[in-house]
Amino acid sequence: MNRTSFIRAALLALLSATAAMPAHAQERPADGAEGESDEIIVTANRREENSQDVSGVVQSLGAEQLRQDGIVELRQLQLAVPGLSIANQEGNVEIFIRGVGSANNTELGDPGAAPHLNGTYIPRPRGLGLMFYDLERVEVNKGPQGTLYGRNALAGTLNIITAKPKLGQFGGYSQAEVSNRSSYAAEGAINVPLGSTAALRAAAYYINRDYGFNNVSTGAPANTLKPAGLEENYAGRLSFLWEPSDRLSVSIVGDYGKETGTGYPGANIFSAVVATGLRPDKLNLKDVVYRGLQGDMTNELWGVQGKIAYDFGTFGAELTGSYRSVDFYQVNASSDGIDFPGRDLSAVQYDNFSGNFWQTRSKSQVYEARIFANEDQPFRWNLGGFYFNEDQAVGYLALADRGYCCYSATEFVMPEVKGESFAFYADGTYDVADRLRLIAGIRYTEEKKSRFGIGGNWALTLGGENFDCCFATRVGTEGFRPALLDRPNFEVSNITTPRGQAQFLIEGISRPGLRDTLIAQIGSIANGTNPNGTCIDRPDIDNGFVNCPAVNPSGTNGGFSYANLTIPGQQIGRAKFDFIDWRVGVEFDIDDDHMLYAKVSTGHKSGGFNDSFNGSPIPEEFRPEDLLVYEVGSRNAFDLFNRPAVFNLTGFYYDYNNQVFQDLTCINLDTTQAPPVCNGYSLVNRNIGASRIYGAEAELRFKLPGNFAVDLNAAFLDTKITRGTVADARAGFRRGRQFAADQPGRQPPAPGVEDQYQRAPVAILPGGAGPVRLAGFAQLSLVLFPQPVQRGRHRLPRRHAADIAGGGIPRSSEGFLDAQPRHGLYDRQFPDRGLGQQLPQRGGVAKGAGRLVAQHSLPQRRAQLRSSRSRRLLA
Known about the structure:
The chain is mostly beta strands and 875 residues long. The protein is built from six helices and 48 strands. The strands form eleven sheets. The chain has a 23-stranded antiparallel beta sheet that branches. Helix 4 crosses helix 5 (518-526). The two termini are 49 Å apart.
């Protein structure tokens, strides 16, 4: 039995054991956020507090509340938390809070909203959804948390807190679900006491899901491909707690998870919009014309966390450590767009194996030491040190099959990507008087990054008789597997001969496809037997007119008339940053139930690398982004019609600087032509943006008769890009310089409305055995989008503006996870992400090898209203 089978069997045994427990031993999932007193506990200040005592906006959802609201996966949190956006891009979890975040999820960048598991930083949130089971609560801390939470907490933090072992209690729970599209899931946990001072808790989770996409291809073998969006995930967690005294606490948490399936859905819909004239919401976006290789995805992750805490009386100490491993591999499910009325599917070229391959490995360590004053002290301080170390290895290969000539592919593989960060911080709250408190904190951070690898294009130009151009090359057909991180060599700076170049290209193939031609065409160049290669004349590569050389030229020994090869270039990068975050504030209690506060705080997101190319003016690195936030608010508890109620109101203003925008830069400009022609492009990160955001949030909770309750959360955001000039290489060149587009200013808004409703599960227990809980949940989101009209020196051509404002971007509520405009770079998303929006990160696309996107960020104006209503009826 292999390891995967053993783990799956163990998880199944655990779920079966919890399901078989006697009814009297069952327990609800732990709910640390809410109890009978309706007190909501949060840890925004690195200590447990009532949320009404915290100056700031922290939304905490306990396990019971999550169940009542029907929130069973990570992305559904955005339905209950206004201003929170969670997306999935090729398995990467992208978190945006109040419009601030980052979609730069390659080794080039970092998250903009910091994810945490039990308070420990998670550097790569890929697979974060696998941790969303057997929870105590989930906290969303809005606004920069640079002082106490540090690394990349620019937008805020999302902290998943798992259920802890309970001393002296034996119990557990199990639950299962069955849904449409043949989907089903199960979850369970068991708590076992080990004497009076220790306990063990084991939890497991399983889901088999179908997102409902259909393969409508008619040609073989494409019609046998499974559609994207099929997934089978499972995870397990073991938690241990030891408290030998009321002063010492030791905890260890280990978890394992695996995601498998056919990959993440996505297809280009522009051709369907153009052909039909219909808006995307009038098309069936899930009828996809698949082709090429079978989509396949595997993501294996595991980690161990440990914490030792000791109470010295007037102060306490805490030492935490974490190790996490991520191993991700995906073959994208390739497609020829979607079906639409009137389309002739028999005319599609199904023998097209263009596609993308992704690989990511990450091993990270996080350590933190902290000492802190206890709650009964007038000066409640925190002093701490933080250390982070990560070793990454990433690979990406994009293949372009069935090209006319001049074969081109794109490969970026970085076997050595290192990141290191350390920080020291001090923070405190001082009681100036009974009702007046001052808050202050500061944190110093230093970061180092480096990487080594290759990046750029594969290119083959193979000539025929009479030097005709050219024979095509097939790579990636049935059975193909790239080498990526298993390449034997990544040093290319000394490869200068055609023989060495041919060897390097062949080494990029771990297993050739059934009908691939690359190795057969250039293998003789690599082994030195024929510098002209080996000419192969096949109908699928001769373009209908190219023949192997026989007369002109002669003497090629069965080779091509010419064989020009290109390999990726060397990628070496180093970067070092340091910055200081701080916060100051004041809290004033009007009385025991009403508090006013004001504070100023900062946050940073780490800088990173750009891809480098010989002779290109692309800057090697981009600097950290920084955010300065002013916030005022009030926290209020009172009686409404003789029933307890809470009303909180917050206003904020963001000053966002050194913002990273991406532009499309030419990296290979042919100035011999008039006008100059660009033969290669790259997406470049630049610190050229600045923005301001202001808004308000309100929260209202109150009880109703008959054990009913109402929770209402509302948020309003107004955003504006105040500075930013980005280049658009497609607009043309004048005197060798590419046009640019200025971003500042608010555009006339184009209104759009999205409505989403969700009903939580209804549980009815027979025979009066227990409470009957009825829960309803509703969301209303109003989004005002600006017209994509540029101000300044250059306006985007009308056809490109139409790509964005017209049919190119469907609403996410339609269930289509990957939406490209007419020209998209690979199969990456182009979703709405607020001011932190990033477009696809990879560059180095040779002309004809990819599709290009309009590169500019757009300001947004949003008004969001999200409400949840929970009704409780006790039998």
